[in-house]
């Protein structure tokens, strides 16, 4: 297993990424990680961290970096950026998967341009697992790649995320819900009503409309929505998790009695933190492109980097992309799907 990673995408430079790679290679001694980025900067950090190049750790030089403030259009001027070079490694089959950190729009744009879309997929979607009350994650798509979704995009997202849930998370017949303002049939705008009808015809276990609370109560395994809504959910959920953690910490440190209680609850609190901490998931899948691509936070910790690399490897092993191609082809052969797609393009 060979995995490329943009070693320049972290907000704090290459160090957290290199530390994360070191953690990952200690967990998986069969994998090879290909770092992409500025050779001089990466080499200096490697020396400081006591890690060297080997059969399991390689380096591909790139002279440019896509900064957080850069736009997708800037990819044209930064063809030798670390993200573009990482995509090239995957496109040319030098690696089996890639991990991109930092500028999400640049990562989506580079992957879409370089890898192209799976036949039948019109827009890629970012999929993220979210913690639930049951302990079993619920995956949400799209979380920001496509803010102006058409009904066929949403239906395709449902198919792709359902495949991931069944193949990687081992959920039997994942329950797919369409995020809406109410559970009743006919709710929402015309695009959501049409997406509802298409999901009914799609090769998924569609349970109908769901509401925001269903993401966390475990009543469904996959939630589909447009990228604008999904990104708002993601940012709000991350902020809420951080705020609740602060509230709990403040309450436990309020006086000596609560401090004693904190000591007694230490193990339970660690389990709770693990469930809500994004670093344990590592990254978000970019589904719909011809290749396994994970997108991570620009502020990813070494643990998040290690888990992103692990998750990328799992997706390759489970042949997620091959399964997506097969199911999307089945979906394309559905007359209802084809008619809807043609109507959208008029």
Helix/strand layout:
Layout (H helix, E strand, L loop, with lengths): L1 E5 L7 H14 L4 E6 L1 H11 L7 E5 L20 H10 L5 E5 L2 H12 L9 E6 L7 E4 L9 H17 L7 E5 L10 H12 L3 E6 L3 H4 L4 E3 L2 H26 L3 H9 L1 H11 L7 E4 L4 E5 L5 H16 L2 H13 L2 H11 L1
Parallel strand pairs: 1-2, 1-4, 2-3, 4-11, 6-9, 7-8, 7-9
Antiparallel strand pairs: 5-6, 5-10, 10-11
Describe the structure.
The chain has 346 residues and is an alpha/beta fold. It has two domains: 160 residues, Isopropylmalate Dehydrogenase; 175 residues, 3-Layer(aba) Sandwich (Isopropylmalate Dehydrogenase), CATH 3.40.718. Helix content is 48%, strand content 16%. It has 13 helices and eleven strands. It has an eleven-stranded mixed β-sheet, with helices on both faces. Strand 1, helix 1 and strand 2 form a beta-alpha-beta unit. Helix 1 crosses helix 11. The longest helix is centred in the C-terminal third of the chain and has 26 residues. The radius of gyration is 21 Å and the shape is globular. The N and C termini lie far apart (43 Å). The mean pLDDT is 86.
Keywords:
single chain; 346 residues; alpha/beta; Isopropylmalate Dehydrogenase; 2 domains; eleven-stranded mixed beta sheet; 13 helices; 48% helix; globular
Strand content: 15-25%
Radius of gyration: 21 Å
CATH class of the largest domain: Alpha Beta
CATH topology of the largest domain: Isopropylmalate Dehydrogenase
| Fraction of residues in helix | 40-55%
Q: Domains counted in the coordinates: how many?
A: 2
Write a short abstract of this structure.
The chain has 346 residues and is of the alpha/beta class. It contains 13 helices and 11 strands.
